[in-house]
Backbone:
């Protein structure tokens, strides 16, 4: 089973995991509309792949109140988009033992980019995607949504919130018998710009980007709706945790539906 979507709108496609996935998806014969803040990087991406395979749209996802306008403009120009790939994110280290020194504007910006903006984009694009014969929304989450790193409290909280949102969205769409599929990618550390705050050592944190994207593509082609790649913990223990949590979630969802009937 191959990844069935033909035109992916990929948020954060000009750097890091997003760029790696965009390149590989294009190599797989899928058209990409790249979204990022910087028009120059979008132009470079289109030049690299050619206009037949790549297009672009500049948008700062932190300005999430403009998401409906952005969605209308994009879908007006590219009505065949059948997959929204939400990948952008930032990661910052905080010392909670001295939380009084933390800049809350910076703290809230991280949550906005990693979670609130992606929820806003989901809401803005859903009416268009639900009209497609088949469509999907792909979220890039993190292993740390399940087992947080103490030094990255806000990043982990944002990814946990995104994971819960994706799970609930998938469940409610299933009940509504919607054709819209929800896919979640849960990476461990990957060698990207995300870890630049660590200095030179950050570039070597995690698995190589090419190895990561190939494993993700295997999961997408297999039709999985949850793809775990690059674990730094014992895979058996972690996968058991994820599976048990999902089973409990589905049991609670079923119980709530019965009570509401």
Residues:
């Amino acid at each position: 089973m191959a990844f069935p979507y033909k035109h992916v709108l990929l948020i954060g496609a000009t750097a890091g995991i997003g760029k790696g996935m965009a390149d590989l998806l294009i190599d797989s014969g899928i058209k990409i509309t790249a979204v990022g803040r910087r028009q120059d990087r979008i132009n470079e991406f289109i030049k690299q792949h050619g206009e037949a395979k790549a297009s672009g749209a500049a948008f700062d996802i932190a300005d999430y109140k403009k998401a409906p306008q952005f969605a209308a403009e994009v879908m007006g120009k590219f009505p065949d988009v059948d997959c929204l790939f939400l990948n952008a994110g930032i990661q910052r280290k905080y010392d909670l033992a001295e939380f009084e020194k933390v800049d809350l504007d910076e703290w809230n910006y991280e949550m906005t980019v990693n979670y609130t903006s992606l929820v806003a984009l989901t809401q803005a694009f859903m009416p268009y995607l639900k009209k497609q014969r088949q469509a999907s929304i792909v979220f890039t989450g993190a292993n740390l949504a399940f087992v947080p790193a103490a030094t990255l409290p806000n990043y982990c909280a944002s990814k946990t919130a995104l994971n819960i949102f994706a799970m609930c969205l998938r469940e409610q769409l299933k009940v509504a018998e919607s054709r819209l599929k929800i896919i979640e990618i849960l990476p461990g550390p990957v060698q990207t710009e995300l870890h630049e705050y660590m200095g030179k050592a950050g570039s070597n944190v995690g698995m190589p980007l090419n190895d990561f994207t190939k494993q993700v593509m295997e999961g997408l082609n297999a039709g999985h709706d949850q793809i775990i790649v690059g674990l730094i913990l014992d895979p058996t223990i972690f996968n058991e945790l994820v599976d048990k949590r999902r089973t409990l979630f589905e049991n609670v969802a079923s119980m709530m539906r019965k009570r509401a009937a």
